[in-house]
Amino acid sequence: MNTTVTASTGNSPSTRRPFRFGRWFRATGWRHIVGVIMVIFSVFPLLYVLSAALNPRGTLTGSNHLFAEIGFEAFGRILSDPTNPFGAWFVNTLLVASITAVATVFLGALAAYSFSRMRFTGRRVGLMTIVLVQMFPQLLAVVAIFLLMSTISDWFPAIGLNTHIGLIMVYMGGALGVNTYLMYGFFNTIPRDIDEAAKIDGAGHARIFFTIILRLVAPILAVVGLLSFISTTNEFVVASILLIDPEKQTLAVGLYKLVSNPNYADWSAFSAGAIMAALPVMALFLFLQKYIVGGLTAGAVK
Amino acid sequence: MKVKSMGFNPRSMLMAGALATTAVLALAGCAGGAGDASGDGSSALTVWVDAERVDALKAAAAAYENKTGVAVKLVSKDTAKIKDDFLQQVPTGKGPDITMGAHDWLGELVTNGVVAPIELADKQDDFLEVAYAAATYDGKQYMLPYAVENLALLRNADLVPEAATSFDDMIAKGTAAGVTHPFLVQQGPESDPYHLYPFQTSFGAPVFGGDENGYDATDLQIGNEGGLAYAQWLSAQGKNGTGVLNTEITGDIASQAFLSGDAAFWLTGPWNVTAAQDAGINLAVDLITSPGVEAAQPFAGVKGFFVSEQSKNKVAANDFLVNYLGTEDVQTALYASGNVLPALKASAEAASSDPIVAGFAAVGAEAVPMPAIPEMGAVWQFWGIAEAAIINGEDPTAIWRKLAADVQGAIG
Amino acid sequence: MSTPRDEAIIKQSRRSQSAARIAEAASVGLRMLLIKIALLGIVDAIAVYALLVLFLDEQWLVAALVAIVTIVVNWIYFSRRHLPAKYLTPGVIFLVVFQIFVVGYTAYIGFTNYGTGHNSDKSQAVDALMSSALERVPDSPTYGVTVVENIAGLGLLVTDPEGDVSVGGTDAPLERVKSAEMEAGKAVAVDGYTSLSFADVLARQGEIAALRVPFSDDPNDGALRTPDGSSAYVYTSTLIYDEQADTMTDAQTGTVYQDNGTGAFTTEDGDALLPGWRINVGLDNFARAFSEDSIRNPLINVTIWTIVFAFLSVATTFFLGLFLALVFNDLRMKGRKFYRIAMILPYAFPAFLSALVWAGLLSESFGFINQVLLGGAEIPWLTDPTLAKASILFVNLWLGFPYMFLVCTGALQSIPGDIVEAATVDGAKPWAIFRLIKLPLLLVTLAPILISSFAFNFNNFNLIYMLTGGGPRDPLASVNVGSTDILISMVYKVAFTGQLRDYGLASAFTIIIFVIVATISIVSFKKTKALEELN
For C328-414, where are the alpha helices, taking DSSP H only? Predict the structure, then answer.
């Protein structure tokens, strides 16, 4: 019963007539009204993007006549242009974002576990540091990252500039950060009795972590993985200085080039590309939803 | 346990993650040995190119490789980032040998020591005057000009069959055509001084004075009498006047209106020509009508190529630029695939058989290079906001005087 | 009431159970050990390879670092102690290399004069000065050349426009030659020299680009240089570099420029030759950051707005996200999947694309909101100072609520269902359950998220830049700062005006901003007792 007061103040007077309907409305019906409002709010601006993608000569914001023309030329254009290897960008993005997401979840969960379950000197400082480091304004970060990666390139070209591994490594630098905190908070809500019981049963720390705790925190792992996947997919600044060859670039880097010169911006193709780029994110979210909200709670396992 | 039934096994997922991570690193370590091929790259030129120009240069690059054995690697770059990346990467030795760019970057590139001079020698007279002037900074040539871009007046010839003779005539003709917008020019919340510049010059108020060696930052002209007259005119065309100028008209809105036949005249650049033709507009290109006493001179933007000061392939780079990209065949071919006015006279003439290109070229004959001196930054900072304020009804004289004073103050 | 036999059986079974448990634990332990060894083996193999490469390159310092880190890693994982380190090391290594280094380097820039005119090191600056100081001798012709070589080194075989041929090298001024092999009016070979093909020229470009052949015995006549390997021109240099004295002298005026420690060759009057180079300037940038006029006047307003903006952004997105998470966390509700997917969409699209769309929607005369929703009203959403601030917050709500929605949905799962059930059975009202049970529990998990979200918005340059560019600006103010500018976008405008990029100043500002944000964050951490459990 998750009814909140904001909800029960009512948008119901007109709809309360039949008794069963009223009950249904109080329980879940009003949630649909909130849902519909939020769908309109969320999706409406994106209709402009869809309209621009379907209109072969469309501008993004030039007109309020949405869907004046419908055609799929922009999709064809972006998919078939040899200088814009959309397929390669797509695969690269999936690869980089998936590996980064999995690695981020893994490294973050390890750290969160130790922060949550162990007591050691430097723990407090460590927790503060990982969140403070990410607060440093990133205005000049590219200069430093380029310098670092170009130096690495001199010795180890395979993990330096213009490589996906190099890019993933830079992203993994952010694995310990606010996401770790999110996991840390979640770990803290798992009762320690569970660890203790397992310990009495003779399980080692690694076993407790991998076989017991991780299952209990699955929702937050899924959330962190999704957040990491989305932010990697849309990351542009670092990817654009590290990835040089068009066929190595990610969607964000490749697509931005289509519109970076305002005079020659191809908004139709860009919008078409952005829509296709959003598909993996949606698919992943659909897939992960059952882990995020499958009714799997600490209470349920006890 | 209930969890089992979820079919989710974080442990295996995480182990996979661990293995993936290490495998990635191991792979990296092993592949490292094979990656030394880049070496000093004595016979490959790396050229950064605007993303939208890569296609036009592909054939030329391949032909040069066939001719000389020097591979030309075109790297398509995000136009908005190309200059900053060049400035940051040249000193590390990782930058390209050659980059495409705009002539107004020159002040910054030269001050930072990242470009090397080139020698056009006798070929300099083969280039359009404005292109050659734009390639010169502080008396030296740094850029191989490739294309010249300037504004011109597009006219929907179905709505208005004849060219306008003056600014007022243009508005009258456009109004007579009965469309929503007699005349369109792209604006924004901070106006758009680049697009309004031809009108400003027509009142005899360039930004800087100067001579054949370029602009002179100590000779600020913007605040002269002509400038004040221009400010009055702006005010008269703005919110409290005829309403011809409107800061709400963004590029998108202007383009959409003209393409759907709701506008008679459109002051814009060659980049919008293809879209207008595709939309089936019967297009004519006219000289920019002058509201003032002199001819309306737009800024010319010259696109070209720079050689990196840190390039290890300077001989090849110079040969590629001067002896190859600067020749008539290549410039004509680039025009054919890129549709911009070539910077080489002979190619420009050939291209001018196309009435649209000829129209832009005719306006371009009046155009002045956009100043490349660093002091221009101080101008941009205050210019648009002042014009927007005047268009939106503030006191033209006071605002314009303040603009001149602020710019002077910032230049120091 | 069990018999001794029963007890024995139970004991027996318990014993065997625990034996099985120990065996299982041992086998898991063994498997873990094998995995551990395999992983460490890979890490060590890579480290050895890396050391090899670094030794060959004589990078002793880096090699030492790699060696130390490898040893520490092995020690951590093989020792029975250092349990926390086992869990933290992988993440910390990446954190140190890719975040702390970046922060450190950025901070270091704050103590240099890095920026326009001081973009590289001294030797590059000297190279650049010398190469742009070369001036072609007025009215001198183009010479056709062939690059040649003899024992003395590279030289040029030169054909002048009259067809006369001469040859010379770095230390040998041009001398006429009689019998050269000609091809299309240009000498291509001469006795005593080997001619270089174009491919040879390319292979030795560095040398050829540096090759200067004196035109005559008189150095004032200049030297021939070939930029492209096939033609040459006579150049004199307008600058003379004296490496010993470390000075540049203007060849025409005789003005001497000295390296006086300001990062450029400078005259006694303070005229500097640019490009200069990067040097450490100590605290100069910080001094300028505090004395910069263009920052001082708007500083107070901008700081207030930055804090208000960051705070309200977090508050609005969090409460909307939390509300939605609660609303759609009801298992009885149908179609939750559909609603959730739709609400994730704003987060799945590139933010700059959305910001552009919103800017269009909010346009005063042409936007959808005024034109369609409000029937042609002319509300200056983005051009009125107050409305622009509201619009920014609104668009940021749109951009940011999906994140909070996701995070809250995840955090909600940590609330044990039985507590809520028990409270419901006890007759607690939903609002009370939320306020007294759920919210406090959620905040344990979410307080750090809120604080770091505050820090993120404090530095949310992109949103401001894309939506309003900091505007609207007051046309009567002489500073380039608008009413929606936050600290970081103001810094951007001050440090990067037009063509002038002052990275040093920008970096000094980022350090100052970081100190502000970090202080606020640490105080909030203390206040919210987010770290309560730490002790």
Answer: 336-348, 351-361, 368, 385-412
C94 and C161 both lie in a single domain: no
Residue A291 CA neighbour count, 13 Å, CB half: 23
Cβ(A302)–Cβ(A216) below 8 Å: no
Q: pTM surpassing 0.95?
A: no
Sign, CA dihedral C236-C123-C155-C145, equals: negative
H or E stretch at C230 = none
Which residue type sits at C482? G
Q: CB-CB: which of A135, A178, A278 is closest to C517?
A: A135
Which residues of chain B are within 8 Å of residue A99 when distances are taken between CB atoms? 20-21, 24
**Cβ within 8 Å, pair C132-B140:** yes
At B316, which amino acid appears?
A
Structural domains present in chain A: 21-71 (no CATH), 83-301 (1.10.3720.10)
Segment B293-348, tens digit of pLDDT: 999 999 999 999 999 999 999 999 999 999 999 999 889 888 877 678 899 999 99
Per-residue pLDDT tens over the stretch B60-86: 899 999 988 899 999 988 888 899 899
Mean pLDDT of the C278-285 span:
91
Q: In chain C, positions 321-340, which contact chain A (CB-CB < 8 Å)?
A: 323-324, 326-337, 339-340
Residue B244: which domain range?
150-299+372-411
Residue B137, helix vs strand vs coil: strand
The pLDDT assigned to B80 comes to 85
Could you say which residues from 380 to 439 on chain C have a Cβ atom under 8 Å away from some Cβ of chain B? 382-383
Average pLDDT, chain C: 86
Bond preceding residue C275 cis, omega within 30 of 0: yes
User: What CATH number is attached to the domain comprising B238?
Assistant: 3.40.190.10
Q: Which residues constitute the domain of residue C56?
A: 25-109
Spatial distance between the Cα atoms of B261 and A292, rounded to a whole number of angstroms: 52
Decide if C228 and B377 are in contact by the 8 Å CB cutoff. no
Place of tokens 């033609």: C231
**B279 vs A contacts (CB less than 8 Å):** 57
Can you count the helices (H) and strands (E) in chain C? 19, 18
Both C56 and C151 in a single domain? no
pLDDT in tens, A9-68: 344 444 545 567 787 777 778 889 999 999 999 999 999 999 989 987 777 877 778 888
Q: Does A9 touch chain C (CB under 8 A)?
A: no
Give CA B123 to chain center in angstroms.
24
Asked if residues B90 and A146 have their Cβ atoms less than 8 Å apart, the reply is: no
Q: How does pLDDT run across C152-169, given as a tens digit for each residue? A: 889 999 998 888 899 998
